[in-house]
Design brief:
Blueprint: E1 7-10, H1 16-27, H2 39-47, E2 51-57, E3 63-71, E4 78-86, H3 95-106, E5 115-121, H4 126-133, E6 137-146, E7 161-169, E8 175-179, H5 184-192, E9 198-202, E10 214-220, E11 225-232, H6 237-247, E12 255-261, H7 267-275, E13 280-285, E14 293-299, H8 313-329
Helix pairs in contact: 1-2
Length: 334
């Protein structure tokens, strides 16, 4: 028996303690997704389809690799592929590619799954290449998403790390989306390469005078990241949004993201308000709310542009759109 014998296998409840051990050996207690350390929570999430994990196990039942599909968007039909970790002794094996293959093979069997996506780090292009191999398409780039400390085992990481978000559609559903005038060129470019059909309608409506604005924010302390979801828009949007930004100002966030809905005829007016506050283009989030979402982002220091490595010409063009918009939206005194 080879020292590196292993097999890719479905997660079983008895694996949860081994998963916690794997992450603790690599990160101590510092991994930001805490469910991996809690066997009871991981098993419960597995049993209700919130997490669909896969492991690499040795013949003596040691867990030497882990990955999972899991829900991380407002719409339950969107699953992320992530939480990849392979024991150092096994990193020169095909485990990572086998995990990706498993995810794509499993996705069509999951009840209610519409879309699969992955946040591929940009400090190297290995995972981006895997995304292309498994027919994922670049739709957004999250600038400076994670701190360098998240990759402490890789001394080559200098500065915050961006991710390119790649999607693959499994349940196709064409529908209309509204396009902010300021972003017509990048939105058309991104949708031109997408694997589902959208009818693009110019966004010309003003913000409605109906109900109040509803927003929620989640702060990820380890990543120094705040994500604000705008659920409903009212005439009070700018006031409510400014109050929320003031509330999180003392949370020591380096990056603030805002998720909007491309199903709003008034999305253009909302985008203009955010751009006036230093937010810039992030990209498109397919099926994020059932219908497509739109990512705006703000980085509170100069972004680590030099640390972004992209594999395809498509991703490089999306980054050009994003960087150009960042330049246009930054105030001289910021």
């Amino acid at each position: 028996m080879s020292r590196l014998d292993y097999k890719i296998d479905l997660f079983k409840p008895g694996d949860a303690a081994g998963v916690a051990r794997l992450f603790r050996e690599e990160y101590g207690d510092g991994y930001p997704v805490k469910i991996v350390y809690n066997p009871e929570q991981l098993v419960a999430a597995f049993e209700n389809n919130e997490y669909i994990p896969v492991v690499a196990r040795t013949p003596d039942n040691r867990i030497v690799g882990f990955s999972s599909l899991y829900r991380s968007a407002p719409h339950k039909g969107v699953y992320e592929t992530g939480l990849f970790l392979v024991s150092p002794d096994f990193r020169n094996t095909p485990i990572f590619g086998m995990f990706c293959k498993y995810a794509v093979k499993t996705a069509p069997t999951i009840p209610g799954l519409d879309v699969l996506f992955i946040e591929n780090v940009c400090n190297h292009t290995l995972s981006q290449r895997a995304g292309i191999l498994f027919k994922h398409i670049e739709m957004a780039i999250e600038i400076d998403l994670m701190p360098a400390e998240a990759y402490a085992s890789n001394n080559a990481v200098l500065g915050r790390v961006s991710t390119v978000n790649m999607f693959r559609t499994f349940v196709h559903r064409p529908y209309d989306v509204y396009v902010p005038e300021i972003y017509e060129e990048p939105v058309r470019y991104i949708y031109d390469g997408f694997d589902d059909s959208r009818a693009l309608i110019p966004s010309k409506a003003g913000i409605p005078s109906g109900g109040p604005t509803e927003i929620t924010t989640q702060v990820f302390d380890f990543a120094q990241l705040a994500r604000t979801t705008v659920n409903e828009i009212g005439m009070d949007f700018d006031t409510v949004f400014d109050a929320e930004q003031k509330r999180i100002a003392d949370k020591d966030c380096s990056v603030i993201q805002v998720w909007l809905k491309l199903s709003w005829p008034w999305i253009g007016a909302v985008v203009n308000i955010l751009r006036d506050r230093g937010f810039f283009l992030g990209g498109i989030l397919p099926r994020w709310f059932g219908n497509d979402g739109f990512l705006m982002q703000k980085v509170l220091q100069r972004p680590n542009w030099e640390g972004i490595n992209l594999y395809t010409d498509r991703a490089k063009q999306i980054l050009c759109f994003i960087k150009d918009d960042w330049v246009r939206t930054q105030r001289v005194d910021s």
